[in-house]
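FAQ: What does the model actually see?

It sees only this:
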Amino acid sequence: MNLKSILMRIYFAVNEKTFQGRVKYLFQRNRSKTLAIVFSGFPGNEKPVYNYVKTLKSWKADKLFILDDFAYRGSYYWYQNGSNGPIKYVQSLINQLINKGGYNKIITLGSSKGGTCAIYFGLTSKANDVYAAACQYYIGKYLNTDEHKRTFQSMMGADAGDAEQKKLDSMMPNILQANANSHTHIHLMYSKDEHTYQEHIADLIKDLDKNGIEHTDKIESFKEHREVGRFFIPWIKNELKIN
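And it is asked to produce this:
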């Protein structure tokens, strides 16, 4: 492990907090009137991680990084063992910080799973802007596969099947419908050459339009989903004017 990794681990250990005994988070207070809420994608291994802490380091907004250590490798901050407790805990944390902070602007952001969560909680929190890269839309279909079965079952229960898949698949369409004509602006970044576009994003865009939710699309060119972070970092720095 190199020195930078060691220092980051020390930083997390010192600064990580826990909300209601369950939600782990980092809150960087810069006395700004802008709050950015950052959601994590799936980690490369089993250990949950915070995303884009280094990317946003020099940005002087207030920043909330929320750890998704619910279920196995993460749960979209939605379910654990069939319970929707994660949604309630995470939304309560967000609401508390927004209410205390007196913010003029709320931003949510993330890539892949984190992008899905940025849209979901961005809409429920009435964010001004959401930045989501290469995100999933039909979460049940995505997780109820051999590759992601353990995550699916840890979220929805050991006996989870078609009904639970359908429930997860409805989460994003339902939140768009519930927030039709929202003033939240969705900024999407994706590649049409990567499988997420045809499987998820094309229908997400159709439903954003159907529900009157404004969006701006940044189309990149990459073929592998794992490349998203490499494109997300310069995109988000440019969008937020981070040096």
